[in-house]
Write a structure and sequence with these properties.
single chain, alpha+beta, five-stranded mixed sheet, 6 helices, 5 strands, about 25% strand
């Protein structure tokens, strides 16, 4: 099986698929995996929506493929049905904020606007979070496109 996780939107897909066909045995599987926007409990959705709006213009164009679950990418294989999946973790506020700050969109925003927008978002999130060290369930919906060579 050849798996590309959260990376196919950066690939020269024609070259990647050629290599997949070269290295896999007949009937081998290929999968493209991506994860969507991070989620918390429903009460946080308005805050997360404001966060997504704050950084929306800073994403590179390739991000659109991620948001579409890689459905807009060419996939020249006999597609397999895949289950609904998600990743989950229990994180305190600092770890969640640290994760958010790793995105290329946040880094671009920080270069252009400085830390003020993120400080404001963090303040509002902390007020809703409660005790900062208290873990909250963090989820990422996964999209899996799988096929046979």
């Amino acid at each position: 099986m050849a798996v590309a996780a959260q990376a196919a939107h950066w690939f020269d897909l024609e070259s990647y698929y050629r290599e997949v066909r070269r290295v896999l045995r007949p009937g081998g599987a290929v999968a493209l995996v991506t994860y969507g926007n991070v989620r918390l409990d429903e009460q946080f959705e308005p805050l997360l929506e404001s966060y997504r709006e704050m950084i929306a213009s800073y994403w590179p164009p390739e991000r659109r493929c991620v948001e579409e679950g890689y459905r807009s990418l060419p996939f020249p294989f006999r597609e397999l049905e895949t289950p609904a999946l998600q990743m989950e973790a229990d994180w305190p506020l600092d770890r969640f904020i640290g994760y958010l700050q790793t995105s290329s969109a946040i880094q671009a925003m920080l270069r252009e606007q400085g830390r003020a927008p993120m400080r404001d978002f963090r303040r509002r999130l902390a007020a809703a979070w409660g005790r900062a060290g208290a873990p909250r369930s963090v989820q990422w919906p996964l999209t899996l496109r799988a096929g046979r060579v």
